[in-house]
Amino acid sequence: MALFFSKTNKLLEMLEGYLGKVTECMEQAQKTLLLYLDKGCCEEFDGLVTKTHIAESCSDDLRREIEIILYEKALMPESRGDILGLLETVDRIPNKAESVAFQMQTEALKIPDEFKSDLRKIININLNIFEDIKRAIRAVFKNIKDVRHITNEIDKKESNSDSMERDLIKKLFRSDIDTGEKILLKELIIEIGSISDRAEDTADRLNIMAVKRLI
User: Fold this and answer.
1) What is the percent of the chain with per-residue pLDDT over 70, rounded to a whole number?
2) In this structure, how many other beta carbons lie within 10 angstroms of the beta carbon of residue 131?
3) CB neighbours (10 Å) of residue 87?
4) Of 19-28, 37-46, 136-145, 153-162, where does mean pLDDT reach its minimum?
5) Which of 10, 33, 163, 199 is the most exposed place for a label (fewest CB within 10 A)?
6) Gap between the Cα atoms of 71 and 51, Å rounded
7) Residue pLDDT, tens place only, 166-192
């Protein structure tokens, strides 16, 4: 029994470290995307893309270490499966944030000034949403009755992001910029918005975990 709790405590400690590294990735990605709005492709932007990639890679390393602990039967099989599934879902969030940064770097799109304010809001709501994911994950292990409240907040922010995306895309296609640029900018807006979509998927999984633990 002592060995069981020792491994469980180690798992929670590593999980906290993983959340910290994902947070670093999301913060770097947010700085990267916002800098692009101000300065476009430049040396500083490229440096932030690299930092985002490094943070994402480090989070992947920590995730794999946690998976090893889980496969060593630190928890009951059902709990192990829940956490493995949670890790897989969470991992998609920083992956998408990193992917958007790479997309901006590769395509080097010019963002018209008239769209920057709206795009900045979309970036912030999508990159900040991981803070709510962290709160919900911690609640699963420490205060499970808070999970539903937090995931409801995530759902509202995802819906708000969807609404902002639709409004900006309408504005984009009513503008007189080149059709090809419209299509590429639309894809970029949708890709940024998919970060909160992935957060909503994680929230759904956390709700299931919470229900199972309350039964």
Assistant:
1) 93
2) 12
3) 17
4) 136-145
5) 163
6) 30
7) 999 999 999 999 999 999 999 999 999
CA 157 to CA 168: how far, in whole Å?
A: 16
DSSP string across 97-137: HHHHHHHHHHH-----HHHHHHHHHHHHHHHHTHHHHHHHH
Q: Does residue 2 carry a pLDDT above 90?
A: no
Contact 157, 136 (CB under 8 A): no
- The domain total for the chain is 1
Residue 19 is which amino acid? Answer: L
Residue 151, domain CATH: 1.20.58.220
The alpha carbons of the chain give a radius of gyration, in whole angstroms, of: 19
Residue-wise pLDDT for 66-114, tens only, equals 888 777 765 555 577 888 899 999 999 999 999 999 999 999 999 999 9
Tokens of 154: 């995530």
> What φ, ψ does residue 42 adopt, rounded to 5°?
-155, 175
